[in-house]
Amino acid sequence: MPNKMKIHNKRTFAFVIVFFAVVSLACSMLTPSTPVPVAPAVTLVVATVEPAPVQLPAVNVTGSEEQALSSLYALVNPSVVNFTLYTVGTDNTVLPTSQASGFVYDGEGHIVTNAHVVQGVQQIDITFSDGSIRAAQTVGQDPHSDLAVVHVEDMPANVKPLPLGSMQGLSVGQTVVAIGNPFGFAGTLTRGIISGLGRTIPAQTLFSIPQSIQTDASINPGNSGGPLLNLQGQVIGINDMIETNNGNSANSGVGFAIPVSVIEKVIPVLIDKGKYDWSWLGVRGGDLDLGLIKAMNLPVDKGAYLWQITAGGPAEAAGLKGASQTADYEGRPVDVGGDVVTAIDGNQVESFDDLLVYIALQTSPGQEVTLTIVRDGKFQDVKVTLAPRPDQVE
């Protein structure tokens, strides 16, 4: 499995949302010279379709931060697992090739991690904090959200699933903690803050992951699939990738976690069906800027601009229009003529990301949605029946 560290540079949003970017995925390679014990490989542990509420002892957050972090670590670390991933070598031998992290999701033996961790692996071993090792099997994976679930037949005694938190109440500046297996150092805790919310990051496909959480908590190779937690010990994200420069795979203070809003939507379905179907609108686009507003004489200054309609997609079937010509605005070319989406099902759309988030988290394939658009300076409603995301887009 290659060390999939990517560099997050310039973004182009789409509903085939394409990212012209490279971001480092936080799994790591195992090499013969690695001076640390081999830890089990990353795999997403997922919950049952209707998991029972998890009740963990309360973390002491009334004392010092040091006391809070110590209490949280003692409570949570037994539920965070290390992964060792094995692939077939050139001589047909099965060799350990990478390591990562995950966490126990329910009492049925499901563990959550990243999809990029389990892709193409031959065997998965999971090591718990007490040193016990279990073989795991992949239950399901979703490259669109970079989430996966693995299963072990029996877990060590007294290992509890981690409860999921909520996106509500999260704020920039809030203290968060990552626990995982960076560089093979099992049970590592790093502390930081939420540096940004509502980020859109690349998935393993041409689509993207909405509402992702940016953090400066140190995330490095081996952290993939481990939990990002609040000080109550609740999972608010799954550590996924880091911003890197010039191919350097070490943390530079900008890491990203898949948000709990996506986790709670995808994981139960992966456990139940092994696969998750996302809705697809079939457009590429971006936010409005001053050039578009002036060149198209728009009556709005916020919205999702549709600059390309995917052939054969739901948007084309509904008659939505993309950019059709180029105009000049103060010496620079502007692609004009596309529809501007200002609302979906009555919910205001101020950016292309708003459209992405609603389609991804509030709809299902086959559902009809109503888009309010601006075309030729006039508002109108267009009904669109969403389709499942295709494996490939022309």
How would you portray this structure in words?
This protein is mostly beta strands and about 400 residues long. It folds into two domains: about 25-275, Thrombin, subunit H (Beta Barrel); about 280-390, Pdz3 Domain (Roll). The chain is built from six helices and 24 strands. The protein has a six-stranded antiparallel β-barrel with strand order 9-10-11-14-13-12. The chain has a six-stranded antiparallel β-barrel with strand order 3-4-5-8-7-6. Strands 16, 17, 20, 21, 22 and 23 form a six-stranded antiparallel beta sheet that branches. The protein is elongated. Residues about 1-25 and about 30-55 have low confidence and may be disordered.
Number of strands: 24
Strand line-up in the sheet with most strands: 9-10-11-14-13-12
**What class would the helix/strand composition place it in?**
mainly beta
The CATH class of the largest domain is Mainly Beta
- Compute the number of helices: 6
In N-to-C order, the SSE pattern is EEHEEEHEEEEEEEEEHEEHEHEEEEHEEE
- Average pLDDT reading: 85
